[in-house]
Design a protein that fits this description.
Its cofactor is FAD. There is one protein chain. By secondary structure, this protein is an alpha/beta fold. It has two domains: about 280 residues, FAD/NAD(P)-binding domain (3-Layer(bba) Sandwich), CATH 3.50.50; about 160 residues, Succinate dehydrogenase/fumarate reductase flavoprotein, catalytic domain (Flavocytochrome C3, Chain A, domain 1). It is built from 13 helices and 24 strands. The strands form six sheets. It has a six-stranded mixed β-sheet, with helices on both faces. Helix 1 links the parallel strand 2 and strand 3. Helix 1 runs parallel beside helix 13 and helix 11 packs across helix 12. The longest helix has 28 residues. Bound molecules: flavin-adenine dinucleotide (FAD).
Length: about 500
């Protein structure tokens, strides 16, 4: 039975959040003829959640250059001639998800993500979202050819800001209504399912009548209490990346009406980044570690910097720094590889020391045991198998031999001045735990039945990522399941209205 609530707004579908998953849901629902209202708790100038903070790098399955041309029809002939995009099949994508998550990923959701990724990319371009190849960060020019690695080859024009702007421009041109500074605080529901949402708009409680709600409100990485509760000790004090508005209440609201939780609640995407940068600031990450080494306060290496392409290791290496004493480490490079360092190493707010010898460098590396560090450098340099040629574009197998913490690829002696070291710490990006959804993005309850009218997508849905994560899968998951959620929500409302006539 419907409650006697007074409603200030009315819509068919309400979307909670205005990031990538939410805006894909909004576009898809509107496309199916639904009247859509998007709720965004941040002010308009901070809209876009974590999506704004991304590079817009997105991972999808494709079959060679013709598929890339289907997404970027105006790729210049001269670029095509010097680019090897390779290919990335649905099976490879699926296998990467399995491998990264130690085979814990939800097989149904993983098949949908990988199987729908290319079609969803085409759908995005139909909605005027533009992409470009990620030259420089995902491919180096070797012998005149850019050869891409790791399956993630495109990014949105203008990065995360560009993606959010393009999604919002498209949504407003399609008539989607967005309420900024409006926070969803409660789901209204009865025996038949969702009835609407209670919100706080500029401090006032209001209600929106709607038969369907898509929860696309992100995860809880910016909620210190939930971080500590679910991820454990030390996670309260980690550097916090991305949006300060992803505080988990969207997930909590659904749990409060009986939704089932899913996924890896005790793990999160966490990377290595500048030790002293304030929270929520862009430019935190330091991701060129495969070409150097990391040492802790004991001067010791503690992880395999070259275990895989950085797309496959960066999301879990933040956590390994958090496990070190005082949650810090130094990344060390020498003059042979400094030209390979990513843009983020060149900015002004970079905690960096430079020296002409390793001894001088060690003196400058705050908090590091100098003697032990110099001993570690001798051990490391002696362990390198330099018969194998160095090639940053592929897993070159140039590794170490006979040391406790091996480096599997891209191992070079650190022996050429100038030497550089960067102080890094752990920074949390987003959380893996969320709501249980099925193949139609319908939120399940604890009796394993759908909650009529409730959908979830993006970080708010759990089950895809465990322990680790393949770079670029976050935006793709948001787009694939956001689109499905929006379509399904619109169909559900249409069916409900038809049934009533
Ligand atoms: C620095 C950084 C770099 C990244 N780089 C990449 C990358 O290159 N490629 C990639 O695939 N992924 C990347 N990610 C991960 C990616 O950002 C996320 O996986 C993805 O953007 C999540 O999208 P979403 O729509 O689920 O959440 P978000 O984009 O975070 O949107 C959630 C929105 O919900 C709003 N909200 C929260 N609670 C409420 C409420 N109660 N009421 C109303 N609104 C609410 C928030 O304000 C926010 O706007 C990166 C993340 C960060 C932080």
């Amino acid at each position: 039975m419907e409650s006697k609530t007074e409603y200030q707004y009315e819509a068919d579908v309400v979307i909670v959040g205005a990031g990538n998953a939410a805006m894909c849901a909004a576009l898809a629902a509107q496309e199916q003829g639904a009247r859509v209202i998007v709720l965004e708790k941040s002010p308009e100038k901070e809209r876009g959640g974590n999506t704004t903070y991304t590079h817009g790098s997105i991972r999808f399955a494709y079959n060679g250059t013709p598929d890339i041309q289907a997404i970027i029809p105006d790729l210049a002939e001269e670029d095509l001639q010097v680019t090897d995009f390779g290919s990335y099949s649905e099976e490879q994508y699926y296998e990467d998800l399995c491998r990264m998550t130690n085979y814990k990923t939800d097989p149904e959701l993983a098949s949908i993500l990988t199987g729908e990724s290319f079609e969803t990319m085409k759908w995005l371009t139909k909605h005027h979202i533009q992409f470009i190849p990620i030259y420089g960060r995902q491919a180096f020019k070797i012998n005149g050819i850019f050869k891409f690695w790791g399956g993630m080859i495109l990014e949105s024009v203008g990065g995360g800001h560009g993606l959010v702007e393009a999604l919002h421009n498209e949504a407003s041109s399609q008539g989607v209504r967005i309420l900024y500074g409006t926070m969803a605080i409660e789901l209204l529901h009865g025996d038949e399912g969702i009835q609407g949402v209670r919100v706080k708009e500029k401090g006032r409680s209001k209600t929106i009548r709607a038969k369907a709600v898509v929860m696309a409100s992100g995860g809880f990485h910016a909620n210190v209490e939930m971080r500590t509760k679910y991820l454990g000790p030390k996670w309260d004090v980690v550097h916090t990346r991305g949006s300060r508005y992803n505080t988990g209440e969207g997930i909590q609201m659904a749990l409060d009406i009986g939704a089932l939780s899913a996924g890896n609640w005790s793990m999160a995407h966490a990377v290595t980044g500048d030790r002293y940068l304030p929270d929520f600031q862009e430019g935190f990450q330091r991701l060129s570690y495969p070409f150097g080494i990391l040492v802790n306060s004991d001067g010791k290496r503690f992880l395999d910097e070259g275990a895989d392409f950085r797309n496959y290791t960066y999301a879990k290496y933040g956590r390994l720094i958090l496990e070190q004493k005082d949650n810090f480490a130094w990344q060390v490079f020498d003059g042979k590889v400094s030209h390979l360092l990513r843009e983020e190493y060149k900015g002004k707010q970079v905690t960096k020391v430079k020296a002409n010898s390793l001894e001088e460098l060690a003196d400058k590396m705050e908090g590091v045991d100098k003697e032990k560090f110099l001993e570690e450098m001798v051990r490391y340099n002696e362990a390198i198998d330099d018969v194998v040629p160095f090639n940053p574009n592929e897993k070159d197998g140039r590794g170490t031999k006979g040391i406790d913490v091996p480096k599997t690829n891209w191992a070079n002696c650190i022996d050429t001045a100038p030497f550089e070291a960067y102080a890094v710490t752990c920074g949390i990006t987003f959380t893996f735990g969320g709501l249980k959804i099925n193949e139609r993005a319908e939120v399940q309850n604890t009796m394993y039945q759908k909650i009529n009218g409730l959908y979830a997508a993006g970080e708010a849905a759990g089950g895809l990522f465990y322990d680790n994560y393949p770079g670029g899968a976050g935006l793709m998951a948001g787009a694939v399941f956001g689109k499905i959620a929006g379509e399904q929500a619109a169909h559900y409302v249409k069916a409900e209205l038809t049934a009533k006539v």
